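Follow-up to my earlier ticket, as requested here are the two runs.
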Amino acid sequence: MAADSASAAEHTHAASRAPVPDADALLGQVESLGDLGGVVVPVTDLLTAVLKADGGRLPHSQAAELSTSVQDAIDHATASAPSPATTPGTTAPSSPLPQASTLPAPVDGRGEVPEGLAGEALTALGKATDGLVKAVAFDDAAQVAPAVNAVVAGLVNAIAAMLVGSELPAPGLAGPPSLPKAP
């Protein structure tokens, strides 16, 4: 009887030390999600600071600091953006920059993801944030609103492109509502 309980305890302890099945694949998925946060947080920090600032104007030093944080995050995400695998002898089609009204549809395999989609979206986001930083330098708040809209659209596109190009599982929502049209 005592031998049975000792054997069960040893078995439980050994099982708790066993690696998680598919840990490497799951870790890759978790890192993909972490990369999203690495981009989303600095971009939303910049947007929040601009929208809360009097007349959409930020002190030059604050704008520069926030812009550097955004660019560092974009550089990191671009460096770790997945490059789609293709079938030998084929190439992935090139893609125009993603537009808010034409977000990429879910794909069944990575070979269907346009090569460089995430990189293109991140580059476009970087240009949009540069435009926003330039807009906050002017006294005209009317220039800030379109620049904010461009950054928001660029962020949505970057998120969509990064998700489509990752190894994350397909969403399992039953009947999600359609996204509103961009203004």
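Run two:
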Amino acid sequence: MYGTDLGREEPIDLHIQMGTHDENGKIKPEVEAKLKTIPQGAATTVWCATSPLLENIGGVYCENCDIAEIDNGQIEHRYDEPSTIREFSLILLTLTMPIDFGK
């Protein structure tokens, strides 16, 4: 995401290895052109939380304020009900765990 410091802890060699940065550690222009601004990056999350199109639907992958299309099998986005229920249960459990602030 453009305009954030999300990658600050990652070694630059990782970015070079992934092909997003050149050998000098500078982000490649073609990669930078595809980065989203902070509002653009947040838009899909807000859309997912408020869209009536997602009512009674779960476990779908969304991007660019829509349900993503499957891209010819290169990356599969599929709904796996048992896995999704298990993951959601773990999230709820984590959110309801008491936090010890050392008081």
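The only thing I checked on run two: The beta strands are 62-63, 66-67. Let me know what else you need.
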